[in-house]
Amino acid sequence: MRKNFTRLAYLALALTFVLAACGTPAPAATEAPMAATEAPAAATEAPAAATEAPAEQFVFGMLLVGPYNDNGWSQAHYEAGLYLEEKLGAKMIYLDKVNPADRPGTTPDQLAEELVAQGAKLVIFNSDDMKDASTTFAKANPDVFVIMASGDQVWPDGKAYEEIPNLMNIMGRMEYGKMMAGCAAALTSETGKIGYLGPLINDETRRLAASAFLGAKHCWETAGNDPAALEFKVTWIGFWFNIPGVTLDPVQVSNDFYTTGYDVVISGIDNPVNLGEAQKLSAEGKTVFGVAYDYVAACDAAPDVCIGVPYFNWGPEYLKAISSAQDGSWASQFIWAGPDWADLNNPDTSTVGFVNGPALSAEDATAVDAFVAELAGGLNLWTGPINLQDGSVYLADGEVGTDQQVWYLPQLLEGMDGLSAAE
Amino acid sequence: MLKGRLSGFVFQLLAFVLALVFVSLILIAAKASPMEAYKNMITGSVGSMRKFAEVLVTFVPLLLVTAGLLITFSAGLWNIGVEGQIVLGAIGTAWVFRQFVDSTLPAGLIITLAILGGMAFGALWASFAGALKTFGGVNEIFGGLGLNFVSTALTLYLIFGPWKREGVASMSGTEPFPDHFSLPQLPDLRISLWALGIALVGVVIVYFILQGTYFGLKLKAVGKNFRAAYLLGIPTWQYSMYSFLICGALAGAAGAIQVAAVYHRLIPSISSGYGYLGLMVAMLINYQAIWAIPVALFFAALNIGSIQLPIVMKLDSSLAGVLQGVLVLFVLLMEGVRQKFVKKA
Predict the structure, then answer these.
(1) Terminus-to-terminus CA distance in chain A, angstroms?
(2) Are A108 and A98 in contact (CB under 8 A)?
(3) On the CB side of B18, how many CA atoms lie within 13 Å of its CA?
(4) Which of the two ends of chain A, N or C, has the fewest CB atoms closer than 10 A to its terminal CB?
(5) Matching fold, domains A57-172+314-350 and A188-313+358-417
(6) B310–A101 C-beta distance less than 8 A
């Protein structure tokens, strides 16, 4: 026994050395970056003082539903955050992967509190999945400004209007972007079969899938094809991105599309996984293409098969909102901002844009550009006759859809395959 | 004996230190400062009243699950199915709430019924694993694992099917329940003292069962030596079933609280992994009920504290899971080493 204790003592001693060896450099290492961060802080304070602006740096927080570098929805928000930092000299703190699968046991309102504890005066909730939580948070924290992207809580003409003075809804009119995506897909497709990789089913996803269909139909018919030969199928995976074991696997869904004659797949989910599958099949000799979504540079993932990307540019509207929070002119409102038709891809003015992909042929690119010019000139594809999937009339001949009719589209449209609601 | 206990404590302390060293090395390899990471995790969990309340929100279901698992472990059972039992507890609670959405009965009564419903569903689900083992000869690990998958499928079916939100088909979850279906919370904090009370009562009952009753003694006898217990006249399979039922009810209570006090609706990952985490806590405390509270609290604090890592240091919060797992491994390892020492002595 005594021998054991001696051995134990040696072991403990050895461990102390190990600890000492690991432990000592650590604090030194922490001090260095801390000192380094203090320096720029001092540097930013100097110009602030010079311009008489408030010395305190404005801190805003962002909750991203997916990874900050998802090449899609969340990355578009993250890049907008960087844009705000640059334009306003503000500081962003963010937390990504805010969803119950990645952060079990937490709720978005709880995580928003963490951002506030780190100094955030305004918090952006970036997903439909956080809508209820953003309401809860905004009501519990009336002194914190809240932006809920893609929601409709504070739309007076909306179906779920609530008065929440510190909350603003911001969304882009992606209907136009989706129309362009559909157009590019229809022009590229040889088989006339277009697949749409749908996330979950709700008002937003129905209207966006339908808009892609309207764009595809328009360009298909304008190009002189037989209207009856166009097939447009939506497969919903169940969430905004793949959650293994919970959603359908979007890679598998893309593969099913591509191997059953759908030679173009449009992504409607938060990342362009369809491109990866298209690239793989393309390497095997199949002629297949994909349309990405959400993020301006999403085509870079697979340029050889990417024919375009409709994307959100959140910067300009967020800039206005945060500026209004800073200067006291904040007003709770619902903003549904469209493209800047004079300059579709202007990062400072256009909330929705479209970039032709490298795989789009020159001829088709010209046709897509012509379509964009038509839209800019006032073409509205949400004009009747438009029937719902069950055949009922939604917009009579010549009737132009109102914002409510477009936002709250109750079903997919006649001519589209796929579920309109859960079975 | 005393020396044995002392050496046990020393070795556990050693295991803890080794786990910290190991995780620190990972952090250094990731070019992050371990001290800063630990500091952030500490301030992130006990740095303010609000944060500590969040720790308690995690602590409550974790403690209930751990308490339940102490019972099945005492009976020599590896109740991996505890995760599914939490889920079924949540489903049961949501089901009861749905029956009373338009009811004028007092909210307190409805919430009580809902929690009891959750416990009943959890116990029922656990009894399946028990029945599979007793009557089907299916090891409870495999039976439980299978039932966990079924419980997930059932949740998804309900959320996507019969319980879906109007016009929506999303894995996000069901429509939130009305506010009055929530367990009352402390002002400005998200913790409900009722939930905390239920968890503490649960662990005290388990402690009492294991330390102070013949039932507990027989349960342990079954766990230590199934055949000997049988020969001594203990109705062994019945005792296995009892332990499943008790554990299922406690796990069901954890699921019930997830619905009634945390999420206020059914979501796909309603169990939040507390079943598996509870298994780790139970192993770490070597199945001694007295340690359940501090260790579950520590694990909960790690979970909440680690949220700071991505916000402040751009590190992944799964580091907390790494630390928890490594800790369990080192404690088990050190226990092996200790026994070798003791034998030699």
Answers:
(1) 71
(2) yes
(3) 19
(4) C
(5) yes
(6) no
Domains of chain A, by residue range, sit at 1-50, 57-172+314-350, 188-313+358-417
* A219: its two tokens: 């360009």
Which of B9, B33, B65 to probe the A interface (max A CBs under 10 A)? B33
Residues 300 through 359 of chain A touching chain B, CB cutoff 8 Å: none
* Residue B51 with chain A: CB contacts under 8 Å: 117
- By C-alpha distance, which of A65, A79, A67, A243 is closest to A149? A65
Q: Is A117 on the interface with B (CB under 8 A)?
A: yes
Candidates B311, B319, B333, B342: best to mutate against A (most CBs of A within 10 A) is: B311
CATH 3.20.20.80 fits A57-172+314-350, yes or no: no
Q: Is B152 on the interface with A (CB under 8 A)?
A: yes
Choose the CATH number for A188-313+358-417 among 3.40.50.2300, 1.10.10.10, 3.30.70.2520, 3.30.559.30: 3.40.50.2300
Q: Any chain A CB within 8 A of the CB of B4?
A: no
User: Helix, strand or coil for residue A89?
Assistant: coil
Nearest C-alpha in B relative to A109:
B190
Residue A119: list chain B partners with CB under 8 A. none
Based on its alpha-carbon atoms, the radius of gyration of chain A, rounded to whole angstroms, reads 25
Of A26, A100, A423, the CB nearest to B267: A100
3 state SS of B184: coil
- Residues of chain A contacting B7 with CB distance shorter than 8 Å: 4, 8
Task: State how far the Cα of B333 lies from the Cα of B14, in Å rounded to an integer.
Answer: 11
Read out DSSP for B204-242?
HHHHHHHHH-HHHHHHHHHHH-HHHHHHTT--HHHHHHH
Give the torsion sign (CA, B161, B164, B166, B167).
negative
Residues of chain A in contact with residue B341, where contact means CB-CB under 8 angstroms, are 4, 7-8
Rounded Cα–Cα distance for residues B157 and B144 (Å):
20
Domain edges within chain B? 56-272
Tens-level pLDDT at each residue, chain B (345 residues)? 456 667 778 888 889 999 999 999 999 998 999 999 999 999 999 999 999 999 999 999 999 999 999 999 999 999 999 999 999 999 999 999 999 999 999 999 999 999 999 999 999 999 999 999 999 999 999 999 999 999 999 999 999 889 998 888 888 889 999 999 999 999 888 899 999 999 999 999 999 999 989 999 999 999 998 889 988 888 999 999 999 999 999 999 999 999 999 999 999 999 999 999 999 999 888 888 889 999 999 999 999 999 999 999 988 888 888 999 999 899 889 888 888 887 765
Which of B3, B268, B273 lies at the smallest CB-CB distance from A1? B3
User: What interface predicted TM-score (ipTM) does this complex get?
Assistant: 0.90
Min CA distance, A402 vs chain B (Å)?
20
